[in-house]
Amino acid sequence: MKNCIRIVILTAFVLFNFAANSQTENNNDDKGDGNTSLVQDSLAEGEQQRIEHAARKARIDSLQKVVQGFPVMNYSKDTLFVVHSNIGESTPEERANHIAKKIKNLQYDDFLKIDSIVVIKSDNTFDIVYGETIIMRISAADAMWYDKSTFDLANELSTKIKDSIIEAKKENTLFKRIQRLGLALLVIGLLWLIIWLIGRGNALLLRYINKNQYKWLKKVSYKDYTFLTKERVMKINLFLLKILRWFLYALLIYITLPIIFSIFPFSRNWSHALFQLIWTPFKDVLVAVWEYLPNLFTILVIYFVMKYFIRFVKYIFSEIESEKLKISGFYNDWAMPTFSIVKLLLYAFMLVLIFPYLPGSDSDIFKGVTIFIGVLFSLGSSSAIGNMIAGLMITYMRPFKIGDRIKIASVTGDVVEKTLLVTRVRTIKNEVITIPNSSVLSGNTTNYTIEANGRGLIIHTTVTIGYDVPWKDMHQALIDAALKTEMILKDPKPFVWQTSLDDFYVSYQINAYTKEASKQGGLYSNLHENIQNVCNERGIEILSPHYRAERDGNMTTIPSHYLSKEYKAPSFKVKLEKDE
Q1: Contact call for residues 221 and 160 (beta carbons, < 8 A)
Q2: I need a labelling partner for 258 at 20 to 30 A (CA). Which of 80, 322, 339, 476 fits?
Q3: Which of 386-415 are b and which e, b meaning 16 or more Cβ less than 10 Å from the residue's Cβ?
Q4: 396-447: which CATH topology?
Q5: Tens-digit pLDDT profile for residues 342-390
Q6: What is the model's pTM?
């Protein structure tokens, strides 16, 4: 019986253990599934936090480029930290001003215990407090700007505030103030000493220059013209020395003032501002020049390429002008005027290329100035442009060239200069007359030289002779007179035209050829002399102007040395008739 009981108890115990183990395994399986689910949830939550953190950081980075922060300054006007976000109704600027004011009050608290400045956790913020005074509240938005936790940022800013207060108290001790005042006086003393030395050295230098000025100084001259005498050179040197001396004074003062301002905490910002007053414009100029260097190199390249290309074009046209290079239909006297036009167009093209690289070329002011200059040029140079166009037309019409004897309106003379604007003519009286090209183009131009170099120029003059002289004798007399004249061509032979039969005389016009168009004045004078001599020798009276005389009882008009010794003036003939 006992054995049976033992067997039953043992069986029951085995079954109980089996059931317990089965339940334990089921529980373990359930627990394992739960742990796996928790791990997965934790990983998902961490990934979500990283994504949110990256998004917040990206947003902060973008805001930092456009949102202005407000600095909190320490006693020396240096920035402790910057406030970007607001808390409640307080703007970042108001927060920064309140924090700076509270820090300043703590700096002047003689009973301040620096260790009493602590960080306390509030509902939604961490507060930096001293006793009952809340110096600053740090929110999650503040921490986001610095990419830190709120607690870490609060501790960091608390340390900065403590260090600032400690340093301010050290700087405001009586010893420090006396030390700063002594340094300022020392700097002022050194400034005065240097200025005195400069003045003393300037006086010694002037005395030395005055003593040796005649040994050193020389007049500035070119050939026979003196630009600067020794006295003027001396005055210029003294003026330059004076300018240099005052420049050194100004430079010393400019250097000294920032040094003095930097000694005292309250004026250190003045030092920086004074230094930046000169350095900033100078730095901006240097930076602008440095940034402009690529454009400057581009302009130089364009200029030099165009310069040597224009030289090549000039060489081509100079070869055409010297007739070494001949182009059909292109005259050599067109070469240089055409080169001037091409050069002007090339320079205009160069300016078009350079214009975008000029500093400020894209500004409205620059564009306005260029338009204004263009309007002034177009309104004020209409006549000049008209003369230039007329000059170009005259050049290619080729009515005359340099050295030709021409007649323009009432002006007769030789062409001495021909430009795009004017033509200058020298008359036979050595008067140089300037004629605008527009007047030349609008009027008639007579050129005496063109045909003179070819078939010859025909000169002519008119003589009036009475009807009592046979016309054949008169023709021969005029031809003989022309042949005796210098610079008259024998071939073609001179010829005579009878231009009119007037009341008291016949008009005879002698025409003769010459190649000396520029010597017409002397040629006409010589021809007139010969006409008078020949007519007198042949007993021909020149009745010009009108001449009327009763021949009886009057001497002939022929000079007496051309008459024979037996010549006597005819007596008056009177015929009386009686009435029957």
Answers
A1: no
A2: 80
A3: ebbebbbebbeeebbeeebbbebeeebbbb
A4: SH3 type barrels. (2.30.30)
A5: 898 899 899 888 888 887 767 777 667 777 677 666 665 667 777 777 8
A6: 0.44
